[in-house]
Amino acid sequence: METKRLVFIGVGGQGNLLASRLLGEAALSMGIHTVVSEIHGMAQRGGIVESAVLLGDVSSPIVSGGEADVLVGFEPVETMRALGKCNKDTLVITNTHPLPPFTVAIGQGDYPTVEESLEAISSRVGRLIALDGNRIAREVGNPLALNMVMLGALLGSGAVPVEPDAMKKVISSSTKKAFLESNLKAFDRGMEEATGTRAAG
What we know:
There is one protein chain. The chain has a six-stranded mixed beta sheet, with helices on both faces. The longest helix has 24 residues, at 177-200. The chain is α/β, with parallel strands linked by helices. The chain has a single domain (4-200), classed as Pyruvate-ferredoxin Oxidoreductase, domain 3 (3-Layer(aba) Sandwich), CATH 3.40.920.10. It contains eight helices and six strands. 43% of the residues lie in helices and 18% in strands. It has helices spanning 16-29, 76-81, 102-105, 114-122, 133-139, 146-156, 164-174, 177-200; strands at residues 4-11, 34-39, 48-55, 70-73, 91-95, 127-131.
């Protein structure tokens, strides 16, 4: 199969490491050769957390500059900061809900508007899918389900050869019963958002 290199970027506590691991498990369940790597960074302090999932004929877990086929960003400015991993054909899927760092809160840093971030992203990549994942997670009754929304958007984009049913099986086996229904709803809503964006784009 065609090699796919995906980068997940976010802030500590958003669940992007779990999202990359679940994607890797779903791909493996379908017999797709998969390599998953994690860079924990300053996760416990709300710092940047990056992970990569490589599908196909690959051995190295590293996605070098300009190599990402897909960038999944859990926070718009962190998505913008990771554009060095992208190229003119990259698909970017980003959450639009801002999570400014502490320095901005105390007036020691500037934070661009979401519109500015999205404009900067779209000008440098092949396709952009932007959605308010936090809002969707709240609407399904589980504010912690952002990662499920983003996984749904990824599969809804058609960018990876992982079947939604395979993904749902992995989510079901990895989720506490109390959160299973809302996680699956979040996944479905993410798929719907990406499919709608794809049809409109």
